[in-house]
Amino acid sequence: MSTIIYYFTGTGNSLYCARRIGDLLGDTTLVPIEGEGEKIAPLRADNIGLVFPVYAFGLPGVVKQFIKHLSPDNKGKYFFTVATNGGRVAGTLVLTRRMLGTKGIKLSAGYSVIMPTNMILLHETNEEKKKILFDSMEKKVREIVSAVKFHEYHAVETGTMSDRILRTGMLYRSALPFIKKMDHKFKADQGCIGCGLCSQVCPVHNIEIKNGIPSWNHQCEMCLSCLNLCPRQAVQYGNMSEGKQRYKNPYIEVKDLIRR
């Protein structure tokens, strides 16, 4: 039984989750979601997975575009989704199910997996908490794998009613049009050595190196890969990131996050 897992990742959490699912399932191909792409042809696999992080209590814009490009001929496959998040999945998976439904695709299972946050602008996760979350993630992955193997139905996991209505229904929908231009606060400080890694790890190719320093082109997903993965911690976001501990999934290497 073959599986294709499409994943979107910034600092490695969703890639790690997708990789662990694939390891346990076997016969699994992992494919990164990068840029807005073109129409996705019928997929030659028994199971189709989407693994992505929750941004602003909803789907990353690039994942929404990916779903819009799925061919209706993909219906009839076992589709499952996994939304990695820092503790609030809200209505993300409900929205995902609805979007897939517009393509004639039934979502058979939708899971929320809580992982350490990379949103260091607002939160930091200590090492003890990280270990607890990764142990919990491993248990959840085994639950997901069991469901996929036997093509079990699993109702999409959601947050509270207020989270679904206020955060996904209102905050996410109002914030989504502005996220691409939120990169205006990114900057490189004097520690920048012009290595270009920030450009290489950007999943939507939003960063160019001009005159030896990064320039952001306002097509941002706010995945914070540039901020968290800079080897000199020279990428800053206004005055909100200075002195903050950076985050990368400890089980993923930077080379795995460099885009094609």
Automatic annotation (TrEMBL):
Keyword Glycoprotein: no
InterPro entries registered for this protein in UniProt: 4Fe4S_Fe-S-bd (IPR017896), 4Fe4S_Fe_S_CS (IPR017900), EFR1-like (IPR047964), Flavodoxin_dom (IPR026816), Flavoprotein-like_sf (IPR029039)
Keyword Protein transport: no
Keywords: Iron, Iron-sulfur, Metal-binding
Pfam families: Fer4_18, Flavodoxin_5
An example molecular function term from Gene Ontology annotations: iron-sulfur cluster binding
Family matches, as SUPFAM superfamilies: 4Fe-4S ferredoxins, Flavoproteins
Domain 4Fe-4S ferredoxin-type: 182-212
Name by which UniProt lists this protein: 4Fe-4S dicluster protein
